[in-house]
Amino acid sequence: MSSLIQAVGWDLDDTLYDRNLPYLAVYQYMEENVLETGIGFDTFNYFYQMNSDIEFRRYTDGRASIDQYRNNRVLMTYAQFGFTIKKKDAILFNQKYEEAKESIVLRPGTKACLDLLQKSGVQQFLLTNGPAQQAHKIDLLGLEDYFSEENTFISSQLGTAKPAIEIFQKVEECLDLNPATTLYIGDNYEADMLGASNAGWQGLFLNVHHKDAAKVSDTITICKDMDDIYKSLNSKLGGKK
């Protein structure tokens, strides 16, 4: 095995699977059954995800409960577009998301990347922001052969969240990792890539949100899909797989 990477960490949401798909189903349900806003999904989802990040930080800091975090991000998004919905509608939104995410599937090409690393003897782990329920997605995605309780790290259980350097250091300590030979793969440039880089890790940036490449550090490899991730991993392993 190449000494370039000895351990690879994966983000979960929007990396191993496309989180937009269950949210699209929820958006369509709300438009058809609760409130027709006429706002396109891409626009709605952009602001929703931004508000979700804001409310998640409040939850992580102990300034909001998990229910407040989930409901506020919905209420805030509708309010930004000039619509007022009731709390029960925000609860319904989240209920529909819980139902929709039961059907999540891996991004095309993901399993080939996981198998490549597994066959190469590279240590793999999962590091994700979110509540403890994130672990259920491992079962939904059929990832039990790759990620166990021992190599799954969820921010709510660690008391800190990406991009804080502390969460990366806690993973290093638990798994006895060498930062220089640890690689992290994620879709969020600030939380995943800058967080990992500040911890001294290498990074593969799955740029599914189309961030301007000129704003990405030249020390971080940009990949447009899992095929690119596979090629980059294969190269770091010596190109023999």
Automatic annotation (TrEMBL):
Domain of life: Bacteria
Keyword field: Hydrolase, Magnesium, Metal-binding
Cell cycle keyword on record: no
A single GO BP: small molecule metabolic process
The keyword Nuclease is annotated on this UniProt entry: no
Molecular function (Gene Ontology), one example: phosphatase activity
Essential cofactor(s): Mg(2+)
PANTHER family assigned to the protein according to its UniProt record, in alphabetical order: GLYCERALDEHYDE 3-PHOSPHATE PHOSPHATASE (PTHR46470:SF2), N-ACYLNEURAMINATE-9-PHOSPHATASE (PTHR46470)
UniProt cross-references to NCBIfam families, sorted A to Z: HAD-SF-IA-v1 (TIGR01549), HAD-SF-IA-v3 (TIGR01509)
Protein name: HAD family hydrolase
Organism listed in the record: Aerococcus tenax
